[in-house]
Amino acid sequence: MLTVFDLTPITLPNCHLPTTQHDSRLTLLWAKRAKRVLTFSEAVKGQLVNWLGFPPERIVVTPLAPNERFKPQPPEEVERVRRKYRLFAPYILFVGTVEPRKNLVTLIRAFAAIAKDFPHLLVLSGARGWMSEPVFAEIERQGLKDRVVHLGYVPAKDLPALMSGAEVFVYPSLGEGFGLPPLEAMACGVPVICSNAPALPEVVGDNAVLVPPADVAAWEEALRHLLSNPDLRAVLGQKGLQRSRQFSWLETARLTLWAFEQAYQDVKGT
After folding, report:
1. If pLDDT is split at 50, 70 and 90, which confidence band does 270 have?
2. How far is CA 81 from CA 87, 161, 168, 233, in A?
3. Class of 85-244 per CATH?
4. Would you kindly state where each structural domain of the chain is located, as residue ranges?
5. How many alpha carbons fall within 13 Å on the CB side of residue 8?
6. What does each C-alpha distance from 145 to 38, 121, 123, 133, 141 come to in angstroms?
7. Angle in degrees, 0-180, between the axes of helices 133-141 and 104-114, rounded to the nearest 10
8. Which of 65, 134, 155, 246 registers the highest number of CB atoms within 10 A of its CB?
9. In what helix (H) or strand (E) does residue 231 lie, and over which residues does it extend?
10. With 70 as the cut, is the pLDDT of residue 255 above it?
11. Is the pLDDT of residue 269 over 80?
12. In sequence order, what are the residues at sequence separation of 6 or more whose Cβ sits closer than 8 angstroms to the Cβ of residue 19?
């Protein structure tokens, strides 16, 4: 039994270190010998089958789920976190490592196009990863040092309130094995704009605004439209909240156990 988290080191090689690409190829060699392969999305399953020739019956999709702490937070908790991180204006939120695959340069360019028309901050929550320099260079180039806030790593206990306080959650990733942060934001009742790259559409369904990841104009339009429409934000927030409840760790565990049972039956039959 082996788990393939994602194939982005293969599909997006320029977004990963050579060592990560090597490790991913090594994992796939082991996966070829596994009785069952677990993965978190139908998108990755499709890549394994269509690109790499894996037998579909050996692949079990076990979707992830938001932790139970991700839920709409009370106003006093949101206020505590806003004060802690000095967020004294409405804000748009991204959560994730600052690295090439997250496509933050596109987001910053789209935000620069709307910044003069809205009072919002763009808040980046997540540690600096490899090749993060172009992101901060773009912030400087766009003259957004006072409007883009990089919080660095945020403790897990603060994330639900940080998400709950956002007017919009954004996730412009070029590709994911699943895409948990948008689902966590939905579980907090926050409207989401995310890219339509694998595997994000199957996570958010039709309960978020989906945008081509590299289309700056489309990101600008999506941000402008959602920030200008509080009623739409409220509708998407409620739809996302309902969507998030369709995922559970109990179901993840049930599917994982079933995969182990099937692998055991295969071993017994050999």
Report:
1. low
2. 8, 6, 17, 22
3. alpha beta
4. 2-65+248-269, 85-244
5. 20
6. 42, 10, 11, 14, 9
7. 10
8. 65
9. helix 230-244
10. yes
11. no
12. none
